[in-house]
Amino acid sequence: MDRSGGGMARWFRRGLGNGRPDPGAAESAPRDNAGGEKTHVTDTGAGGSPVPAHPAAGTWQEVTGSGNVTATHGAKAVTGIDNSITLNLPPEAHPPTEVPARAGLDALPFHPGLFVGRGGELEELDAALEGVGVALVQAVSGLGGIGKSTLAAHWAATRAHGHVPVRWFTADSPAGVQQGLADLAVALQPLLARVLPVEALAEWGMQWLACHTGWLVVLDNVQNPADIATLVGRARGGRFLITSRLTTGWSAAGASTVVRLDVLDPGDSLKLLTRIAVADHPGRDMSGAAGLCEELGHLPLALEQAGAYLAQNPFITPRAYRELLARQPGRMLGRRAVNTPGKRTIARIWDVTLDRVTQIQPEAAGLLRMLAWFAPDHIPTALLRAAEPGPDSQNGPDGQDGGDGAWETVGVLSAYGMLTVDPAADTVSVHRLVQAVARTPEPGHPHRTPEQIDRARRHATSRLHTVLPQDWNNPANWPLWRELLPHVDALARHAAAGTDTHTTARLLSSAGSFLNDQGTIRRAIAYLGRAHTTCLRVLGEDHPSTLTSRNNLAYAYHAAGDLERAIPLFERTVDDAVRVLGEDHPSTLSSRNNLASAYRAAGDLERAIPLFERTLQERVRVLGEDHPSTLTSRNNLAGAYESAGDLTRA
């Protein structure tokens, strides 16, 4: 329709296909004008007689606007006294009921020639789409980049499903659904594009689906089930295949089957990366490819992105890419190869998702930043329930109060696939690449400023320190220690030592002491040494925590048999403890006992025995005869006597 006079034309929807208006719609003639008078809308070139609907068109079509409107290609447009315009479609136009499906109308955006794995999921779709209904393709986490659209496109293009036509709607908004329906209408009856606006075309397409069978429509990347509810409710004769990052709400939207996607298995993951990377350079070095796949968490889009980068840079090995990823995750996951779509990068997709999530739950980004410092799998919900003690804990959006708000935030993140929940195990999990991006600072970024990242790291440290039992010697606490230790390891690995706080030092000191008692001495020394260095930097030489950390480090060296390092540390600790805490302080007595034990282990009984004797006397005086530490000193002294061959005193 061509329009002059500057007005805005609008197509007024009628009941196309049955010759009657939609329920509740005004009759096309006569009708009320602006003054309430009944009048026929007439064709000014037909002597004032009413313009009937053409039988092939099904009913009147009406648009409104100011000024004159001229229809083209045989359609008639008439301006009424209230500026309403009635459009009669040309004779060659047909209602939806009279337009059959035909070959050549399929429209898929891409056919992924490079496709690996997913055999089980393809079979699930085969079974799901045999009957009438809705099949929903989505990831377990709903995570962007897991391959939902790729699976749907591959299935639609390659399986013998027998559906005609096959149409693809980009359904991430109501406008996208409308455009998909309009495109269907034009594909079925091209002349409609010249006489109907998009709203009318969409209604025509909707009615065509409603009165035909055997079609397949892929609704890709649905953001809100409400956006497709009308379409799914009205069009019952075909099949819908829906992809979405959302993990909830689909049964209410009419989905009868949910095919849940997980990441690729390691073999398929390696195959996908290798095929892309060696396509142009078959003899290139692929060393470290399996390790890179593991680091990428076997996520298809991340593998495709890395493979394209490697293909473009044949002198960069997968091992080198992995090192770049470890140093600059935000940059590498946001980087694309030449001639690849700019928005299809992991970082971009997740930024868009997080924008949407934080509109619903503003605290979601903060919680995700905190979870990014833990191990990716089996994060106990106790870490979400913990309070925020200590000077390192700062109020702000990165913490939760442990109440219902935390669980609501978890629910929203889970619904958008940014984490997965396991209520039976009372844990949550976050994909390792989501974590890598979430803890990478970027000035000016809405979700990852350096200040936000620092605050999240402090919260994660405080949560761990609060939940971990301080009595690591008690066997009853060992299961919880073993459950939480991977998260301590992750925090220590991802946080730079120079950012450690007093709380970090206390956490690592406790973890090191537990590991030492469990016989994992090398890791214990690493944690205890880092804790001591942090105490020196943050608290100074004479702080009691610094003295304790030095004592614990010396104790671990002793356990490792490295007495050359243990004894000087013990000697310095005793001297400083006497000066700072006093001769009779329990920590001073413990340090003296430990030094005596190191002397004995070194075979220096001449220094060990007098020190044991002195420690025992002072513990009896300060702590009493029956105190556990007193009993320990008495036992140690007896052992030293025995080592000296003095069995009478032993």
UniProtKB/TrEMBL annotation:
Biased composition (Low complexity): 389-398
Region (Disordered): 1-67, 386-406
Matching InterPro entries: DUF7779, NLR-like, P-loop_NTPase, TPR-like_helical_dom_sf
Domain DUF7779: 358-440
Record's protein name: Tetratricopeptide (TPR) repeat protein
